[in-house]
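Recap from last week: sequence in, structure out.
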Amino acid sequence: MDERFHDLEARITYQEYVIDELNRTVYRQQTRIDWLETTLTDLARRFYANESQGAKPTHELPPHY
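Predicted structure tokens:
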């Protein structure tokens, strides 16, 4: 009986560790996603601001052509 309790305690301890690791991973991923969304929004805002001001990209061929 004690061996079974010891086994259950070990499993629970390991599961708690794995859950904590997964939570940290999800937190880091969400932080990165938030940063990427902010960066993408900023880039889109700057792109459309340049476009609305009449700044058109030049389609000149590079000098080596």
